[in-house]
Structures are given as structure tokens and as C-alpha cells.
Amino acid sequence: MTVEEHYKRLAPKLTNWLVATGSPYQEACDLVQETFMKVWSMRDDLQDNDAAVSGLVFTIARNLRKNLFREKNRVTYVDEIKEGDLGLTSEKTSASDIDFLRQRLKEAFDQLPPLLREAYTLFQIGELSIQEIAHETGVSEGLVKVRIFRAKEKLKEILSDLSVTF
């Protein structure tokens, strides 16, 4: 089977899986394209076994998404924010502004359901891998990913009036 035939058969399944496990649709489409570019580059070494190619495709996509997630979703600690980088309108940032941001962040985390807060904190602040969090919490890796994604989306919603990246 050619790479094109594998693409026609697996791309919709891979896209659905990526979206179902927390990736936005456009990001999922990009990951599918990047996955098949990697598969194309190794086309001469592919086994003529549908199950092996399918496993390879899903593994590549999972790893690409993991790398993308790590790159773009690092939390910036409030204490690391320089005074001029707060996105506030005044030229000078006072201690009360920093205290305000700390308080807003604390309140936002307090609004998260405990399971989402735990997964997000272990991943972003504790810097544990998805696998380590799954082992620690006794749930599947997929559920850990969903909890982290939902926590991130909820924090974005709560803190939407601030220019803070999660």
C-alpha cells in the first residue's frame, strides 16, 4: 500500500482522534499533515503491514502533539514577569499591580475543579510528563491530557481580560 493510500485511509481517523483527545481542529489537521510528511520521508522503510503503519502514524502524531503542547503551553510565573511586560496601560507597574495579578491567578486556580487543577499544576508547574501524571493519579494518559486541556481552556476563560499566556 502506498503512503497516499495510507493517508486516505488513516487521515480522517487520526484527525478525529486528535480532536477527541484535546487538540483544536486546525491544529489536528496540521499535525496530520506533519505526521504524513514524516511517513513520506520514511516510505522506503515502511512495512507492507496496515497495522504497523497505523501504529507508526498514531505514535508520530502523538509525539508531535506532545512536543507542540510543551513548546506553546509553558506557564509564565507571575514573579517572572518584568514590570514592563504586564500589558497594563500605565508606564510604571506598582507593587499593587503585581499583587493584583497574583490574586487574580490564585482566584482563577481556585475556580478550577480539583481534578483539573491537579493535572494542570503537575504538568505546568511540577513539569511531570503525561505518563508520570497518569501513574501518580491512577488514570489513563488520555484522561490526563483532557484534564490539562480543559484546565487551560477554563483559565483562559477566567483570565480573558488579562494578556496572560498559558
Give the total of domains.
Answer: 2
Overall structural class, as computed from helix and strand content, comes to mainly alpha
The topology string of helices and strands comes to HHHHHHH
**What is the general shape?**
elongated
Radius of gyration: 20 Å
Poorly predicted regions are none
The appropriate CATH architecture of the largest domain is: Orthogonal Bundle
Q: Kindly, what is the distance between the CA atoms of the first and last residues, rounded to a whole number of angstroms?
A: 42 Å
**CATH superfamily name of the largest domain?**
Winged helix-like DNA-binding domain superfamily/Winged helix DNA-binding domain
Please tell me the overall pLDDT: 81
Could you name the key traits of this structure?
166 residues; mainly alpha; Arc Repressor Mutant, subunit A; elongated
Describe the structure.
The N and C termini lie far apart (42 Å). The chain has helices at residues 3-20, 25-41, 50-72, 95-111, 114-124, 130-137, 141-158. The chain is built from seven helices and no strands. It is 67% helix and 0% strand. α5 crosses α7. The longest helix has 23 residues, at 50-72. It has two domains: 3-72, no CATH class; 82-158, Arc Repressor Mutant, subunit A. By secondary structure, the protein is mostly helical. It is elongated and about 65 Å long.
Which secondary structure elements does this structure contain, and how are they paired or packed?
Layout: H1 3-20, H2 25-41, H3 50-72, H4 95-111, H5 114-124, H6 130-137, H7 141-158
Helix pairs in contact: 1-2, 1-3, 2-3, 5-7, 6-7
